């Protein structure tokens, strides 16, 4: 796996003519190997942007480029060999074992109706299972797993694609504290370019190199977490009062939030 630079140029989207624009022209550049966190209130356009990045929707305007190549100029197979996505919506069941589901990540590399798994493919599948601590579940079926275990299966399947860009939509949802920490450690250490949407702003600040703050489909800020997630910007975007508490002079601080005339909440 090798990371790709991501360039988003004047990207916008709406469901159709005469409908509201859900994402207004958005531009940013993410260097190869960096982690971008997309944050904002509900309805900000986070999922809309992610769907454009993994080519689920065609943009109304603009381009999504990997290393200066527009993804809409590539075949679907070529895109699937470079971009993998882990979504919030999880399938309730497959008539497949966990090992077989993870093996689906190798589909973009197979030709025709070839269903056999070669030694190289099996090595990649085994590595993905091991990285997400799933070897002990490899012969189980998805319907027998917890929500957190299913999330780990979907991440493993994405890694088996050997993508250059990994897109994660709320990857810590359904996870207990231990597996949240494991997924965050994975994000920090994968040699990939990663774009992830996150609700927890403090978590995003701790794991991401850059932050894109959205509100109502508009970009409020893009850049390092300590610059974008200012008290003023967060308060404006989320319609709350945000305060940054610092435990030490060198500490970037921890954001707390409260409604006007209410006690603060972490």
UniProtKB/TrEMBL annotation:
Domain called ABC transporter: residue spans: 6-241
Organism (species): Yoonia phaeophyticola
Pfam families the UniProt entry points to: ABC_tran
Highest taxon in the source lineage: Bacteria
UniProt-recorded Gene Ontology molecular function terms: ATP binding
Name this polypeptide is given: ABC transporter ATP-binding protein
Keywords: ATP-binding, Nucleotide-binding
Coiled coil: none
Entry keyword annotation includes Nucleotide-binding: yes
Source lineage: Bacteria, Pseudomonadati, Pseudomonadota, Alphaproteobacteria, Rhodobacterales
InterPro entries tied to this protein: AAA+_ATPase (IPR003593), ABC_transporter-like_ATP-bd (IPR003439), ABC_transporter-like_CS (IPR017871), P-loop_NTPase (IPR027417)
């Amino acid at each position: 796996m090798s990371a790709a630079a991501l360039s988003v140029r004047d990207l916008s989207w709406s469901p159709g003519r005469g409908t509201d624009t859900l994402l207004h022209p958005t531009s940013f550049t993410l260097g190869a190997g960096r982690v971008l966190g997309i944050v904002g209130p509900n309805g900000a356009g986070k999922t809309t942007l992610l769907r454009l990045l993994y080519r689920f929707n065609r943009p109304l305007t603009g381009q999504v480029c990997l290393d200066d190549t527009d993804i809409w100029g590539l075949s679907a197979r070529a895109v699937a060999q470079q971009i993998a996505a882990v979504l919030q919506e999880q399938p309730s069941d497959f008539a497949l074992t966990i090992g077989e589901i993870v093996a689906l990540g190798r589909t973009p590399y197979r030709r025709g109706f070839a269903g056999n798994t070669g030694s190289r493919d099996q090595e990649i599948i085994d590595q993905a299972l091991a990285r997400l601590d799933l070897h002990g579940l490899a012969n189980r079926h998805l319907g027998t797993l917890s929500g957190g275990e299913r999330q780990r299966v979907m991440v493993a399947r994405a890694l088996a694609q050997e993508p250059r860009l990994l897109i994660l939509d709320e990857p810590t949802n359904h996870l207990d504290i231990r597996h949240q920490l494991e997924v965050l450690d994975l994000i920090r250490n994968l040699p990939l370019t990663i774009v992830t949407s996150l609700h927890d702003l403090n978590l995003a600040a701790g794991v991401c190199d850059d932050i894109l703050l959205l509100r109502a489909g508009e970009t409020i800020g893009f850049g390092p977490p300590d610059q974008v997630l200012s008290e003023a910007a967060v308060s404006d975007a989320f319609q709350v009062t945000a305060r940054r508490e610092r435990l030490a002079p060198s500490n970037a601080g921890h954001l707390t939030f409260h409604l006007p005339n209410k006690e603060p909440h972490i």
